[in-house]
Q: What sequence folds into this?
């Protein structure tokens, strides 16, 4: 368990590119494996989570290779072409890999056992077991509907109509991927829009996907089953969820000026930009353009005084993974911030609401935690800093580890995380990138 400590840092400056988008990377490998012909992927995230997906697709018969150029090539087997794996599918820390792959297997009549690390094995899978059982898959899950879990996909998958009980792109995607194997139309209704990478990428690979806007922001997504998917080129933008760490660091460390290039700015992902604007951050989008169907741009921040604000529940799906680092920003802001609609944070890689609350308290930040909200009393103002001087448990959660290391850059005393190794699940190279900008990290404990 390598600990890492972050010290008060001088100005952070530079132009950087963070690794590829995790959500898009998983989907590119999965769809490449069920498309006919070759899929070439540029900018794939080579983090542990995505490598688990690559291994799983290989275990089910797809050819997945990394070229010397850094491009990845998948030779797929077509919808219905995946093979029964002769080993367990180890999904590591990744909820996205586990849930989306269960969807894919559910519609393909295969039997597979899914395993994961202690964090993933504690996360709820009933949310996908329920709709995938309606498709016809059969599950033998561990207590409480958790991993390890063995599933037998449906021989004759049913096209279902499913209204999401939680705002979850993972559940939506699992149902749609199961629908690839079913005849007729699979329909998902989502009360609140969530990231639409699956819809976009299925369309890119040749599937017929219809999206209708319903009253109150809801959406109905219809997929025509048993499509012939064709291998395609995919360009993966930089992950806004990883960019968020550098951007918040640039906002809270005095004298900073950071630009993160080629960031994916899909509106269903870019809530963090709105929230930083609401905090009064100096943030601007430069060179906005469309690449491979996704909006991308360069995001520049310069440091300045942040002011506490209320962050509405309606924005939660568009920044669900960015809350931990936004809480760190709120701790440095002047005045109180209130974040609402946080119930899903409790079932991420850790219970991010209570783990962040405990860590911030240990760093001397005053706050109040509710079932689904957090109110943080920011310590900011000229010359005022979060006290810091604590070691925080990262709880097998990459985003907890990175959030506290970012906070340490602007705190009076250093902040340590007990285990920095989970960072590699989503952001290999985080330490080098932050140090390149001027952050002071060390192996010494706070
Ligand atoms: C993801 C969806 C989100 C997010 C996760 C990636 C995806 O989860 O937290 O990191 O790629 O679909 P939920 O859809 O369960 O909220």
A:
């Amino acid at each position: 368990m390598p600990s890492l400590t972050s010290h008060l840092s001088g100005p952070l400056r530079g132009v950087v590119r963070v690794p590829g988008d995790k959500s898009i990377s998983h989907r590119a490998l999965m769809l490449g494996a069920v498309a006919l012909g070759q899929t070439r992927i540029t900018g794939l995230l080579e983090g542990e989570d995505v490598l688990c997906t690559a291994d799983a697709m290989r275990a089910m018969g797809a050819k997945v290779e990394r070229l010397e150029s850094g491009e990845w090539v998948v030779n797929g087997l077509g919808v219905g072409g995946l093979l029964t794996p002769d080993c367990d599918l180890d999904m590591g820390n990744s909820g996205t890999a586990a849930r989306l792959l269960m969807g894919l297997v559910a519609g393909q009549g295969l039997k597979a056992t899914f395993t994961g690390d202690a964090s993933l094995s504690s996360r709820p899978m009933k949310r996908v077991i329920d709709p995938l059982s309606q498709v016809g898959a059969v599950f033998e899950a561990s207590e409480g509907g958790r991993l390890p879990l063995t599933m037998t996909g449906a021989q004759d998958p049913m096209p279902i109509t499913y209204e999401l009980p939680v705002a979850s792109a993972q559940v939506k995607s699992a149902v749609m991927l199961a629908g690839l194997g079913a005849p007729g139309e699979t329909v998902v209704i989502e009360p609140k829009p969530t990231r639409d990478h699956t819809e976009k990428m299925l369309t890119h690979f040749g599937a017929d996907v219809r999206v209708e806007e319903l009253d109150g922001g809801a959406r109905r997504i219809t997929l025509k089953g048993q499509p012939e998917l064709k291998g395609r080129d995919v360009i993966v933008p930089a992950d806004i969820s990883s960019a968020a760490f550098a951007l918040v660091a640039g906002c809270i460390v005095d004298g900073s000026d950071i630009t993160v290039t080629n960031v994916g700015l899909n509106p269903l992902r870019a809530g963090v930009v709105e929230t930083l604007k609401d905090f009064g951050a100096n943030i601007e989008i430069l060179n906005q353009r469309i690449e491979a169907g996704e909006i991308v741009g360069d995001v520049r921040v310069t440091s300045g005084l942040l002011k506490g604000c209320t962050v509405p529940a309606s924005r939660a799906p568009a920044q669900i993974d960015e809350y931990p680092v936004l809480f760190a920003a709120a701790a440095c802001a002047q005045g109180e911030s209130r974040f609402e609609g946080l119930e899903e944070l409790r079932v991420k890689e850790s219970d991010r609401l209570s783990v962040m609350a405990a860590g911030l308290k240990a760093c001397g930040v005053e706050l109040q935690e509710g079932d689904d909200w957090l109110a943080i009393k920011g310590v900011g103002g000229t010359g005022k800093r979060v006290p810091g001087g604590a070691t925080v448990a990262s709880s097998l959660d990459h985003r907890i580890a990175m959030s506290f290391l970012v906070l340490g850059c602007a705190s009076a005393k250093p902040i340590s995380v007990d285990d920095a190794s989970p960072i590699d699940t989503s952001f290999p190279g985080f330490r080098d990138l932050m140090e390149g900008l001027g952050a002071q990290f060390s192996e010494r404990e706070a």
About this structure: Residues 23, 96, 168-170, 173, 194-195, 320-321, 344 surround shikimate-3-phosphate (CB under 6 Å). The chain has two domains: 3-20+237-444, 22-227. The first strand starts at residue 4 and ends at 7.
